[in-house]
């Protein structure tokens, strides 16, 4: 009898343990599904909102930077529609059921679209550098419609060259095919493995991340320094008492917008580095440590990069006044409360950043104190594009 009771007790304990294990696994599964679904949904809606806002808002369409933003939103939208769902399915089921060919296509799309997103961010940084740190005439000469088109084209052509061409030809797997096959068919499941050899890891990472990162750091550093220098010069003019009340008010406004612009750029740059640096550091290191990076770490780094596609429209909504108003107009079905001249008016400028205009004004104010108001008006008339910058 005692042995029978012991067996029953052990069986009951084992059953309870199994139920707890199943319940815990189900809870984690539901939490993971909810988290990934939220990322994909917010990414789709946010990027669609950005594209619709620029297409519907005449004032936003006037700004050259926003063409980069629309193309960026399109790339991020494709990431959330063509890349994230298949990655989420494989992560949840721990199995790839779509075949080897589609695995290569999905991997190529992943590299293409995420690289395109990063290159668009780099182009936006360069565009803002020319608009804010250079003279208006320099910006107009640099950012012609043809050059903007070529830059956007490069943001798509370069990723295509480093994604579909080498991956579909198998250049990334030269020398490590046996490792890829071993991981693809490990256990009772099949997974879509993307492993790269050392040459491809270095080349792809440098082109897709490290060069754009360097250019963005240099551009935003110069923008930040310029904004701080303008604020200092405005303070000097105020203490010297050389400005009239109207000019003083305008300079105070510019100082606030310049400071906000510098902070905005720092936030955008910080989010970019936080999201993508872990993946590309891991991508370079892994081939040199015999591919020993845990799969869980790989998945975490990859999805952290995907989150950047969700964050971009959020940053525009919360940190940019013109986009925020355009979003409210769309979400509130064109309610009159949000229809302000700064958004829809034909002649009202976007005042998110007016750094380049104040650079021109400051130079004339220091040299010709008596005529600073007239020179300021002339500067504002000749610098419409840079004044209407939304970064």
From TrEMBL:
Please tell me where this protein is predominantly located: membrane
rRNA processing keyword on record: no
Instruction: Please give the GO cellular component terms listed in this UniProt entry.
Output: endosome membrane; plasma membrane; synapse
Listed GO molecular functions? alpha2-adrenergic receptor activity; G protein-coupled serotonin receptor activity
Q: What kind of membrane protein is this, topologically?
A: Multi-pass membrane protein
Keywords, alphabetical: Cell membrane, Disulfide bond, Endosome, G-protein coupled receptor, Glycoprotein, Membrane, Receptor, Transducer, Transmembrane, Transmembrane helix
According to the entry, every stretch annotated as the G-protein coupled receptors family 1 profile domain falls at 46-316
For this chain, the family text in UniProt reads: Belongs to the G-protein coupled receptor 1 family.
Q: What does this protein do?
A: G-protein coupled receptor for 5-hydroxytryptamine (serotonin), a biogenic hormone that functions as a neurotransmitter, a hormone and a mitogen. Ligand binding causes a conformation change that triggers signaling via guanine nucleotide-binding proteins (G proteins) and modulates the activity of downstream effectors. HTR4 is coupled to G(s) G alpha proteins and mediates activation of adenylate cyclase activity.
User: Could you give the subunit structure recorded for this chain?
Assistant: Interacts (via C-terminus 330-346 AA) with GRK5; this interaction is promoted by 5-HT (serotonin).
- What name appears for this protein in its UniProt entry? 5-hydroxytryptamine receptor 4
Which gene is the coding source of this polypeptide chain? htr4
């Amino acid at each position: 009898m005692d042995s029978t009771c012991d067996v029953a007790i052990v069986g009951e304990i084992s059953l309870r343990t199994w139920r707890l294990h199943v319940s815990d696994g189900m809870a984690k599964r539901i939490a993971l599904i909810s988290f990934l679904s939220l990322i994909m949904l917010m990414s789709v809606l946010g990027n669609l909102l950005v594209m619709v806002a620029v297409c519907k808002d005449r004032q936003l369409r006037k700004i050259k930077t926003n063409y980069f933003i629309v193309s960026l939103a399109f790339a991020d939208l494709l990431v959330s529609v063509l890349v994230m769902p298949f990655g989420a399915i494989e992560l949840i089921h721990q199995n790839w059921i779509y075949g080897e060919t589609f695995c290569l296509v999905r991997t190529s799309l992943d590299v293409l679209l995420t690289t395109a997103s990063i290159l668009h961010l780099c182009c936006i940084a360069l565009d803002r550098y020319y608009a804010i740190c250079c003279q208006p005439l320099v910006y107009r000469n640099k950012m012609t419609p043809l050059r903007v088109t070529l830059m956007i084209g490069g943001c798509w052509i370069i990723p295509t060259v480093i994604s579909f061409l080498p991956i579909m030809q198998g250049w990334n797997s030269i020398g490590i095919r046996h490792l890829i096959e071993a991981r693809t068919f490990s256990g009772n499941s099949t997974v879509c493995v993307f492993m790269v050899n050392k040459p491809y890891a270095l080349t792809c990472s440098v082109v897709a991340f490290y060069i754009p990162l360097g250019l963005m750091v240099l551009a935003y550093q110069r923008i930040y320094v310029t904004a701080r220098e303008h604020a200092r010069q405005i303070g000097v003019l105020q203490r010297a008492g050389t400005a009239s009340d109207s000019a003083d008010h305008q300079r105070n406004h510019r100082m606030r917008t310049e400071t906000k612009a510098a902070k905005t750029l720092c936030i955008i740059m910080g989010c970019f580095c936080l999201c993508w640096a872990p993946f590309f550091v891991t991508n370079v290191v892994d081939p040199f440590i015999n591919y020993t990076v845990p799969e869980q770490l790989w998945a975490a780094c990859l999805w952290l990069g995907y989150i950047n596609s969700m964050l971009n429209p959020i940053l525009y909504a919360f940190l940019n006044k013109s986009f925020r108003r355009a979003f409210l107009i769309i979400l509130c079905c064109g309610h009159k409360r949000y229809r302000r001249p700064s958004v829809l008016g034909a002649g009202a400028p976007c005042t998110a950043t007016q750094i380049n205009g104040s650079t021109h004004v400051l130079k004339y104010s220091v040299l010709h104190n008596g005529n600073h108001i007239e020179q300021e008006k002339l500067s504002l008339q000749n610098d419409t594009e840079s004044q209407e910058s939304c970064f």
